[in-house]
Fold:
Amino acid sequence: MIITDIVPKRKRLSALYIDGEFALKLDTETVLMSRFSVGSEITDEELRELIDSSNEKRAKERALWLISYRDHSKKELEEKVKKASDDVSAKKAVERMEELGLVDDEKFARRYAEELINVKHLSVRGARYKLTEKGIDRELADEILEELDPDPREHIQIIIDKKYSAALADEKGRRRCIAALQRMGYAWSDINAVIGEYTEDEYI
Structure:
């Protein structure tokens, strides 16, 4: 097979023509840094290696772009990179980010847990679910949440004061408040006790 043309395209890609016909688009820098140029002969194996190199480079670039905006867990980052790359390249890209110290599940989990508990006021159960959803190991999630040791009733009170204090005046409002707190993972016993402080009586 002979490379008959290499045509630069948008998004740092180049169209590769083989034997006079369009073959595929590859990362421009990968093509330029290879030993291949117009007129070069290329075997199927060499073309496969060139494709793999292009895919891996673009996967790494996407991973870097994503983590430049915010922290990601390994699982979350890999899933996002996969949307624009093959599975193998995505996995290699994330592993490289981890080697460089740009992805660290423990650091991510600690920051995320603090946000979930202290900013969003999720329950420990709700925060644990969110952490494991991001691919954080259950044991690590439990360790971090145990260190934070949030008082569920204190957080329920904060949520009520911010969003539902006026709603507690009637039955419909109380049910809406209770449903919201339960979705956040709070236990009925804690919800009931705190609402009782506002209504001067326990709900049930």
The first strand starts at residue 3 and ends at 8. Residues 152-199 form one domain. The mean pLDDT is 91.
